[in-house]
Amino acid sequence: MAKNENYSADQIQVLEGLEPVRKRPGMYIGSTDTRGLHHCVYEIVDNAIDEAMAGHCDTIIVTLLEGGAISVEDNGRGIPVDIHPKKKLPALEIVLTTLHAGGKFGGDESGYKVSGGLHGVGSSVVNALSTHLRAEVYRNGTIYSQEYKMGKTQNKLQEEGKTTKRGTKIIYTADGSIFDTLEYSMETLLTRFRQQCYLTRGITIAVLDERKERPAGDKEIPRLYRFSFEGGISAYVRHLNESKEKIGSPIWFEKDTDDGLVEVGIQYTQSFQEHVVSFANNIHTIEGGHHLSGFKAALTRTINAYARKNGILKEKEDNLTADDVREGLTAVVAVRLSEPQFEGQTKSKLGNAEMKTAVESVVNDKLAEYLEEHPSEAKDIINKCSLAARARLAARAARDSVIRKGALEGMTLPGKLADCSSRDPSECEIYIVEGDSAGGSAKQGRNREFQAILPLRGKILNVEQARLDRMLANNEVKSLIIALGVGIGEIKDMSKLRYHRVVIMTDADVDGAHIRTLLMTLFFRYFPELIENGYLYIAQPPLYKISKGKDQRYAYTDEEKEEVLKDMGVNQEETEGSDDDEEGEEGDEKAKKKSPRANIQRYKGLGEMNPDQLWETTMDPENRLMLRVTMENAEAADSIFSTLMGSEVPPRKKFIQTHAKGVKNLDV
User: Fold this and answer.
1) N or C end of the chain: smaller count of CB under 10 Å?
2) Would residue 297 count as lying in a domain?
3) Looking at the 3D structure of the chain, how many domains does it have?
């Protein structure tokens, strides 16, 4: 490599103002995909939520405008517009054009005692990543406004007249040269804002969609949605459990400690999965933190102490484990503190060690008090936990059997797995195929170097309604776990995953869709890391093979079939098997001389395809189409799986009735 002898001070790049944000947006909003796009909306709304937590705001209106713009208006105090003593600029302009500027740094002496907007970069980052932003402030009976482009001020602060309103309104348009997409999802926004209303009692958030053209996923959602929940976290727990069989009513308590406010909602269900979510200053701490650690420790200790004291756990019995007391648990843990320490701008984990002690203390006292005052509910909860403990021991024996079997069978496990020759997981992919017939075609058509095939016989167990011990007794589930190589439960180790592409390949009919859903339920509940890391895919085999003379093509949808026929110059009446064959043999012969008819073959199952066809259309990396399974919203995913796969019938019936009209082609 040639040496650069001219390296000097003038080659050092200094990014000023908001330039660093435009240069490296991912550092400030996490990503520039749809998540980053929506994160910008959250940043502006979070500022209004901070006003609400400070007691100055009770209404926030979010509007999706035509042309991709977003409007966020609150009735708080309004961002200050007076001149800053040091910067000699209006405070509004400083807040919107300077990183780490805001009223959230001075503790009790600042504008906010409790705030989610810790870093003071939210508004300015959104401004930097917008082609245009307009700020309106309603304060002191006056309307103030200022315009910005790509983070740069366009005019001096304007006074536009008198008003009786108060608050702030931000209207901005995200920069299409920065973001991968400018399409907002009403559903994604509603999920976030519903959550915020549960966490802040007394606040109303309205979302209005004024776009003429709405994304397909939003068309069934009303254009105006309004949230307000006086029940707070207790109502939130009810919402999370609405499709589950519940044990007792939600348990709710809060306490203001020296380190901050602690609020907790708890309810057990008859399901086998836990669903615990945590928040700090209304920010969803996806990766948890010290507040969540304190809750889990206190929950295990308190339930064991009560069970021992009241003789529900016998002297010779082992204590219930953390997993035992969290089976079927739904909980919301929320704390508010003046100096939160988040990891990163996206605030996914709380780092304040003192909150572990605070939450632990509150849960120890309040939960113990509740159990003493409600002995019947306490007994039901501990019976549920004890049953989980017995199932855990049975599952351990079954799991050990699976592990031993896996170790004995070596690299050919299980017997029906046609493994690939490569041992590099990043190269390898496994196709989970429905049935022996499709499995045979896939095994013959695959590339043996990097593609493994695992045929499954029939429908696997619905793991939403089964504990681990019963799950491991199912041969199909057992084969799949052994093939993946990561183990399950307490000894799961995702670093041992043998394939970095796990592909579900089922028939394009109702049974195939059901098998696909059962498999996704298994992965979501027991191997969510596959989804989080982008390793889970759904194969897309073609629905049709269209032939006209020597011209043969495949179509993956009905719309694509029509396009292919049109491109071939084929009228609908010229296809084999059409209803327009009544003009007699003479007319039919003339039509064939003009143009050979097109033959349309509808594939009902993968087994109908020859190995070379399956490779060419569905398995060849050069040609195939695959859907990657993602999980943008764990809460929504949990609700969907509980509704569709759980034991409660009414929520599933309601879901089907609501969405039945949206099913266009049901292939039974």
Assistant:
1) N
2) yes
3) 3
Residues 36 and 155 in one domain: yes
From CA 214, how far away is CA 207, in angstroms rounded?
Answer: 14
> Is-catalytic flag, 507?
yes
The answer to whether the CB of 113 falls within 8 A of the CB of 338 is: yes
| Sign of CA pseudo-dihedral 633, 636, 637, 638 | positive
Q: Which of 403, 514, 503 minimizes the C-alpha distance to 451?
A: 503
Do 219 and 247 lie in one domain? The reply is no
> Same domain for 154 and 39?
yes
Are residues 39 and 145 part of one domain?
A: yes
Q: 36 with 154, same domain? A: yes
- Do 128 and 203 have their domain in common? yes
Q: Which of 168, 196, 227 is the last residue of a domain?
A: 227
H or E element at residue 435: none
Neighbours of 325 (CB within 10 A): 27
* Of 419, 507, 574, 638, catalytic: 507
Of 200, 227, 254, which residue sits at a domain end?
Answer: 227
Say how many C-beta atoms besides its own lie within 10 A of residue 565's C-beta.
21
Q: At 447, is the pLDDT very low, low, confident or very high (cuts 50, 70, 90)?
A: very high
The catalytic residue among 511, 529, 560, 616 is 511
**pTM score, whole prediction:** 0.68
Question: For residue range 27-86, what is the model confidence (pLDDT) as tens digits?
Answer: 888 889 998 999 999 999 989 998 898 889 999 999 999 999 999 999 999 999 998 888
C-alpha span between 174 and 132 (Å, rounded): 8
Which residues have C-beta within 8 Å of that of residue 443, sequence separation ≥ 6? Answer: 418, 453
Residue 182's domain comprises 19-227
Tell me how far CA of residue 391 lies from CA of 384, 385, 470, in angstroms. 11, 10, 9
Instruction: Evaluate whether residue 547 is within a structural domain.
Output: no
Q: In terms of domains, do 222 and 268 share one?
A: no
Catalytic residue among 73, 74, 360, 434: 434
Q: What is the CATH number of the domain that holds 638?
A: 3.40.50.670
From the candidates 58, 274, 509, 635, which is the catalytic residue?
509
**Whole-angstrom Cα distance, residue 21 to residue 534?**
27
Interior/surface letters 83-97, b for 16+ CB within 10 angstroms, e for the rest: ebeeeeebbbbbbbb
The SS3 call for residue 571 is coil
Within 10 angstroms of residue 303's Cβ, the number of other Cβ atoms is 24
User: Quick one: 198 and 257 in the same domain?
Assistant: no
Task: Give φ, ψ of 504 to 5 degrees.
Answer: -85, 120
Domain-located, residue 395: no
Concerning whether 511 is annotated as a catalytic residue, the answer is yes
Q: Report the CATH number that the domain containing residue 93 is assigned in CATH.
A: 3.30.565.10
Tens-digit pLDDT profile for residues 364-390: 999 999 999 999 999 999 999 998 888
**Contact indicator for 296, 364 with CB cutoff of 8 Å:** no
Distances (CA, A) of 238 to 242, 269, 325, 632: 6, 11, 19, 22
- Please give the structure tokens belonging to residue 581: 């064959």
Strands of the sheet with 329-336, listed across from one edge: 246-257, 260-269, 329-336, 275-280, 283-284
419 part of the active site: no
Is 365 one of the annotated active-site residues of the chain?
no
Do 183 and 215 meet the contact criterion of CB atoms below 8 Å apart?
yes
Tokens linked to 265: 């909602």
Backbone angles phi, psi at 164, to 5 degrees: -100, -5
